[in-house]
Write a sequence for this structure.
């Protein structure tokens, strides 16, 4: 089955935490996150990483955690921190180890 078919068969629930979309670069709405169409666009669309990280800084996120094999995105997140952004930890969780970037 194609991705859309599977996505349309899933039961979605409203998120319990705020979610910043890499599809839009802003806070995602409950309607978006509970829609198969949103997830199809998320898979096929361009990633707006910089916009999403800037939105996290604007929302005064306390910590950013990178889940992946290395800390590449942590450096990119720091590059997108504006001068007026709140201090926050940017931490990669690579290979089961936590390493702090400052």
């Amino acid at each position: 089955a194609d991705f859309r078919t599977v996505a349309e068969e899933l039961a979605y629930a409203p998120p319990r935490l705020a979610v910043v979309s890499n599809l839009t670069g802003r806070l995602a709405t409950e309607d978006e996150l509970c829609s198969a169409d949103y997830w199809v666009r998320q898979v096929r669309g361009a990633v707006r990483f910089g916009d999403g990280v800037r939105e996290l800084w604007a929302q005064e996120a306390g910590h950013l955690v990178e889940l992946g094999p290395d800390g590449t995105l942590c450096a990119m997140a720091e590059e997108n921190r504006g001068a007026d952004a709140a201090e926050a930890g940017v931490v990669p969780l690579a290979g089961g180890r936590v390493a702090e970037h400052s």
